[in-house]
């Protein structure tokens, strides 16, 4: 059995089962699987085809974020009950090369959600990547070519009604707190064009799979957005959940109702441009099994995973350090968020010395299999975060002392009209 997509058709006009873009316990399963059975799940790219293979960054600027993400499923696993752990093994995955041969990376406009470094890169930009098997390269980011670590950015089981209501309540409390006092939210920008702190339910852009239309409209009023990760799984964007990985998802509803999507040809830890991986339409061959009463037996109510051992296997890295001190010199206390920002900004400034622009460097860090670490969280007042960039992704030596490799490497096209 499998879940198929047509990349040339809009999400709501798929010829077989419709994908869905909200979490709700009543979205009906469209695929069934027995424990021990392997099925293929295909998914559109996370925007549902809003980004095309051209040089126009306005496509990224104008993305309708109420629509995302588009998930394959749900899959009902026979015998799955609340309290079980759903064991999901990723046997194979890849791009839909017979139907879609490119991927894309975007810097979101600050007015459309921004990103990790939106105060440094407030305008939209786009890079297109050619996907040749597992190898990626881009006309917009020259002299970078490497084997990516393909993975689904998003996977999980349906929430129970009780868990859904808990999500909505706690996230609304955060929204209300921010509205009352924006400065009270740590690590969140408080500028004029700031991104939101959470995404509450909205019927706008909601696609509820194969639900009855009347029931779907009512359910969409409380259905959770797919944007963040939560207890059930969701949008973790963990680059190491690739071929050969095994993930154990908590089961909250009968049948589990598993789904996945948001395929990436490659990504660096943190997906720091927000639309920061190499986004693509893709497939995964997954095998299901059950650990009965696994949540209680193992004391877990969040996913756990065992990474696979498929490459790329880089040996040489250049590693950048960041500490809990903002760019303006403000000392923070054991702030790993600030420390990772500083490590990323150090890496961007370094790559600019070799001829890349800041936007190109940002897209490099968001897409190559860079390793992010919380290296130290005990030495007051500074946390130490590190970002290790694999040297082998470049077609020249980026080690210190090799600035003779500097060259004009062009630029990404950046929109000059952030508001559209």
From TrEMBL:
Q: Which residues form a coiled coil?
A: none
**In which residue ranges is the amino acid composition biased (Acidic residues)?**
1-11, 211-221
SUPFAM superfamilies per the record? Acetamidase/Formamidase-like (SSF141130)
Residue ranges with Basic and acidic residues bias:
222-239
Q: Which stretches of sequence are listed as region Disordered?
A: 1-24, 180-239
What GO MF annotations does this protein's record show?
Answer: hydrolase activity, acting on carbon-nitrogen (but not peptide) bonds, in linear amides
Q: Source organism's superkingdom?
A: Archaea
The protein's name in its UniProt record? Acetamidase/Formamidase
PANTHER family documented for this protein? FORMAMIDASE C869.04-RELATED (PTHR31891:SF1)
Pfam families tied to this protein:
FmdA_AmdA
Which lineage ranks, top first, belong to the organism behind this chain? Archaea, Methanobacteriati, Methanobacteriota, Stenosarchaea group, Halobacteria
């Amino acid at each position: 059995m499998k879940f198929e997509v047509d990349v040339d058709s809009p999400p709501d006009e798929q010829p077989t089962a419709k994908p869905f873009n909200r979490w709700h316990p009543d979205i009906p399963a469209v695929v069934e699987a027995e424990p021990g059975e392997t099925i293929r799940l295909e998914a559109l790219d996370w925007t549902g085809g809003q980004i095309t293979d051209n040089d126009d960054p306005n496509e990224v600027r104008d993305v309708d974020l109420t629509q995302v993400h588009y998930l394959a499923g749900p899959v009902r696993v026979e015998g799955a009950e609340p309290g079980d752990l759903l064991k999901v093994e990723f046997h194979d995955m890849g791009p839909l090369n017979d139907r879609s041969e490119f991927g894309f990376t975007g810097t979101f406009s600050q007015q459309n959600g921004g990103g990790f470094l939106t105060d440094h890169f407030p305008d939209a930009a786009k890079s297109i990547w050619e996907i040749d098997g597992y190898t990626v390269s881009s006309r917009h980011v020259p002299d970078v070519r490497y084997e990516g670590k393909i993975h689904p950015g998003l996977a999980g089981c349906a929430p129970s009604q009780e868990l859904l209501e808990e999500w909505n309540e706690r996230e609304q409390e955060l929204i209300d707190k921010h509205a009352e006092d924006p400065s009270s939210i740590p690590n969140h920008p408080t500028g004029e064009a700031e991104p939101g702190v959470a995404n509450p339910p909205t019927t706008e852009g909601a696609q509820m799979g194969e639900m009855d239309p009347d029931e779907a409209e009512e359910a969409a009023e409380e259905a959770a957005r797919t944007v963040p990760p939560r207890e059930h799984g969701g949008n973790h964007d963990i680059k190491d959940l690739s071929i050969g990985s095994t993930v154990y998802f908590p089961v909250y509803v009968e049948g589990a109702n598993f789904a996945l999507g948001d395929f990436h040809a490659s990504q660096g830890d943190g997906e720091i441009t927000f639309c920061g991986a190499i986004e693509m339409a893709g497939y995964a061959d997954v095998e299901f099994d059950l650990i009965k009463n696994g949540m209680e037996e193992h004391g877990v109510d969040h996913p756990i995973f065992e990474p696979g051992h498929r490459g790329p296997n880089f040996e040489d890295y250049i590693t950048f350090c960041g500490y809990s001190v903002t760019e303006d010199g403000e000392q923070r206390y054991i702030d790993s968020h600030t420390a990772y920002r500083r490590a990323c900004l150090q890496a961007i400034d370094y790559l600019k010395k070799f001829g890349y622009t800041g936007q190109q460097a940002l897209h490099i860090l968001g897409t190559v299999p860079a390793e992010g670490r919380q290296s130290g969280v005990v030495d007051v007042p500074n946390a130490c975060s590190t970002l290790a960039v694999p040297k082998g992704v470049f077609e020249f030596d980026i080690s210190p002392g090799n600035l003779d490799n500097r060259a004009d490497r062009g630029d990404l096209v950046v929109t000059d009209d952030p508001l559209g």
